[in-house]
Amino acid sequence: MSVRQTIKRHFKIISILQKKAMSFEELQDEIAIDPDSVEEKLLTSQRTFQRDILDIASIYGIEIASDKSRNVYFIRDDVEDESTQRLRENYDLLNAIRLSKGMGNSLIFEQRKALGTKHMSGLLFAVQNSWVVEFEYLKFWDGSLSKRRVHPISLKEARNRWYLIAKDEKDEIIKNFSLDRIENLALTQVHFTPISYDVQAEFKDSFGIINGTEEEPVEVVLSFTPREGRYVESLPLHSSQKLVEKNEKEIRFSYFIRPTYDFRMEILSYGDQVKVLQPKTLQQEIKKQLENSIDQY
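RE: above sequence
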């Protein structure tokens, strides 16, 4: 069996057992109704499945345990980390794309600009080896290109875009560069002293990619209509989101977050389906922005 088949089988087992506990026979039945799994010959023996359990624990850090009283297998304390989950989801998407070829409109994508992912492997290598990188950067406001020489720190995803976090040699300021606006990337092989900069901590209280501003994190309380509230409950706006109140008239959430420009724009995108309850300063800013919008008409 090929390495590809083994990886696909691992991901399939994880995906199925995340839904509910199953016996080995039920797991095989579930695999058997998936056309892609049948095509890839992912059905396997009990012995191979036991080896898969050990490999999944070792490679992905996900423990599959058994309940002998019910004769089922289950994922113990689902601890799949973010990178493993994303890898598995992207693998599922790749399989869906492959299966949809030649099948008309069975898989529809949004029209969007490329994400600049072609730069990721080179930038990641530069981050891990502390190499200075050079590139041309397309400015949003005037469409011009500027030459940059930076010390890469990390790659970060925000709002469906990927960004390079790096210190700009021009002014020694740590900045964010969208990968889709980077052109003519060059790895210089010039080493720099690694920078002490905790990306996770710096962005923990931020909504998107904006940080390093004067805004301090504050408690924000938003009241959504029940319809929008249920959507936000299923897809939280921020990791700090907490449910405060839920009834037939509204759903309230609290956040500990910096009320930066991108967060204010997100609030405005919900129109009359949301109301800022606190802090009053943010409430007034949103109100003023709405009044300015009305004045445009």
